[in-house]
Hints:
The complex is a heterodimer. Chain A is mainly α. Chain A folds into two domains: 1-48, no CATH class; 50-263, MetI-like (MetI-like fold). Helix content of chain A is 72%, strand content 0%. Chain A has helices at 3-28, 50-90, 96-104, 115-124, 131-155, 159-167, 172-180, 185-201, 204-209, 217-226, 233-263. In chain A, helix 2 (50-90) packs across helix 8. The longest helix of chain A has 41 residues, at 50-90. In chain A, 48% of the residues are buried. Chain B is mainly alpha-helical. Chain B has two domains: 12-125 and 155-160 and 232-258 and 295-368, Orthogonal Bundle (MetI-like fold), CATH 1.10.3720; 170-222. Chain B is built from 14 helices and two strands, in the order ααααααβααβαααααα. Chain B has helices at residues 2-33, 41-44, 57-64, 69-101, 107-115, 122-132, 170-192, 195-213, 234-259, 262-270, 275-303, 307-313, 323-333, 337-368, and strands at 161-166, 227-231. Chain B has a two-stranded antiparallel sheet. Chain B is globular and about 75 Å long. At the A-B interface, helix 1, helix 2, helix 3, helix 4 and helix 5 of A face helix 1, helix 4, helix 5, helix 6 and helix 9 of B.
Amino acid sequence: MGRILLYSLLLLATLFFLLPVYLVLLTALKEPAKITLDTVWRWPDPVYWESFKVAWEAFRPKFQNSAVLALSATALSALVGALNGYVLAKWPFRGSNLLFALMLFGMFIPYQSILIPLFQFVKAIGLYGTLWGLILVHVVYGIPIVTLIFKNYYSEIPDELVEAARIDGAGFFGIFRHVVLPLSAPAFVVVAIWQFTQIWNEFLFAVTLTRPESQPITVALAQLAGGEAVKWNLPMAGALLAALPTLLVYIFLGRYFLRGLLAGSVKG
Amino acid sequence: MRDRITAFLVLLPSLVAVGIFVYGFIGQNVWVSLSDWGKNPAQALALRPELRFVGLENYRELFTGFVDTRFRQSVVNLIFFTLFFMGGSLGLGLLLAVALDRGPKGEGFFRTVFLFPMALSFVVTGTIWRWLLQPQGGVNVLPTLFGLPPLGFPWLTTRAQVLVFDWNQLPLYTAFVVGLVLLYLGWQAHRAGEGKRRFWSLLSASVLLLWAFTLGRHVQLLPYPEPHGFSLALVGVILAAVWQMSGYTMALYLAGLRGIPVEVLEAAKVDGASEWQTYRHVIFPLLAPITLSAMIVLGHIALKIFDLIFAMAGLDYAPTDVPAIYMYLLAFRGNQFAKGAAIGILLLLLVAVVVIPYLASQLRKEVRR
C-alpha cells in the first residue's frame, strides 16, 4: 500500500466517522425556520445558540434522572462487585466456582427473555415508574460483569498478603478494608467507567420500567426524535447533551474505557 | 471458620438476586410463553392474571400462524441485518487496523476518531442517522456540494425487498446451510487428523442434506406461499450500526496486529514472501481467533438489537422490524404477553447457540493451560 493510498483511505474513513457529527452541530446551531432539507450542509448564518438553551430546559429533568441513576447504580454495583470478587478470589468455598459460572451466565442473556417477568416483578414490589426500580435492575444485572472484573483483578493479589494479615489477627472485613481495598483503585476505575457508560446509554429497561417523570435522557431523546412534527435543531442539541457525559469519559479516560470494553464486551 | 461463614453471607445476596432475576425470570418467562396470557383482554393487565397452559401454541402461531407474518419478516430481517452488520464491521475494522498498523502520522488522532462512536448510546446514533438519512436531505444531498445531482435512494422509507424467497423454503435452506457448515467442519477435522470429529460432522451433514433433498423439499409450513426478503430499509440501519461498532473491531484487530512477534514477520520476509502473501498466509491466520471473538460479540449485539431501530424507525414500521422490536410491540403495546414471552425465549435460544460453543471452547482452552 503506497503512502498516498494509505492517507486517502484514512481521510475517507475520518470523513465517514466525523461528517455525522458535523451535521449534528450544523443543525443544532441553526434557526429552526432555516433548517431545510436541501441546505442541510450549509453553515448556519447567523449562528443560533438558542436551541441549546431550549433543549437544556426541556431535557434537564431527564438529564438529572440519568445522572442520579447512573451515578448511584454505578457506586452500588462497584461496591457489590468488590465484595463478591474478594470472596470468590480470596475466600473460595466448595462449589464457589460453579456458582460463579452460573452467575456469569446472566451476562449473556438477551434481556428480552426476562423482560416480561421483570416488568411484573417491579410492578408488584411497587417500584414501577420510579428511579429506584431502575437502579435496582441495573445493579442486579450488573452483578456478573462487575464480579468478573473484580475477581480477575483480586486473583492477582498474592495470597500471602491475605495470609499474613490473617495471622496478625485481621478478620474478613479487616483484611478487605486494610489490605485489599487500598490496592483496588484500578479495578474500581475500570468498573466505574464501564458501568457508568452502560447505564447512561441503556434504553430497553429504561423505556419499559419508567414513567415520564422518571425517564432517563435516552428515552426522552428517542421520543422527541420519533415525533414527526418536531424541528430537527432540538433532537440534535438533545443528542449532543445525551452524548456529552460518556464522550467526556471517553476522551479523558479512554485508556480505561478500552480496558473495560475488552473485558466486558459480551455483556447483554 | 467464622470468616468463612461471613464470606458466604456476603456473597449470598448476589447469588439470590441472580437466582431470581436470571434463572427465576427465565423459568417464569418459559411458563408465560406456554400460556394464553393476552388472549383474553380482561386478564391482560391484571396484576395476578389467570394463565391457562396451551403448550407450544404460541410458538406454532409465530412460525406458521396467519396473523404473525410480521414476526416472520422480522426473523428474516434479523438474519440479513446480522450478516451484513458483522461483515461490514469486521471488514472495515480490519481495513482500518491494517492501515493504522503501518504507522501513519497522527495515528492517535485517527484511533480516537474511529473509536469515539463506541462511547455513544445506540439511541444517540439512531437519532443522528435518522436525520442523515432523510430522503431529501442529509447524505443524499452531499453530492450537490460538488455540483453533482443528489442521490435518490429513499433509505429508511423504502419498502422494497430483494432476495425474496418463500417462507415454506426456510427449513430447506436452513438444513442446506447447516449441512454445508458441518461439511466444512468435517473437512477441517479431516485435515487435522481428528477421526472422531470427522466422523460425526460428516454423518450429521449427510443426514441433514439427505433430509433436505428428500423430505425437506415437501415441508409446508403454511398452506400458501409467503414471500419474505431482505428489506432495503435496513441498509441505513446497517450503515449506522457499522459506524458505531467498526471502531471496536478495529481496536481488537490492532491489538492483535501489535501482538504478532517481529521474528515471524522477519521470517516471512526472509522466505521471500511478498507483502500481500505475508498478510494472506501469515498475518490473517494469526488474527483468526480475534475474528471469532469479534463475531461472537457482534452477533450478540445484532441478535438483541432494539434501541438503534427504535430510534431510527420507531416501533410501528414493519420494514425494519426485528424480533426484539416486535416482542416489545406485542407485549407492551398490545398486551400479548404470552407471544412476547415466546419471542424472548426464542432470542435466548439463538444467543445460546452463538455463545455456548464459544464459552465451552474458552473453558477447554483454560483447562488445557
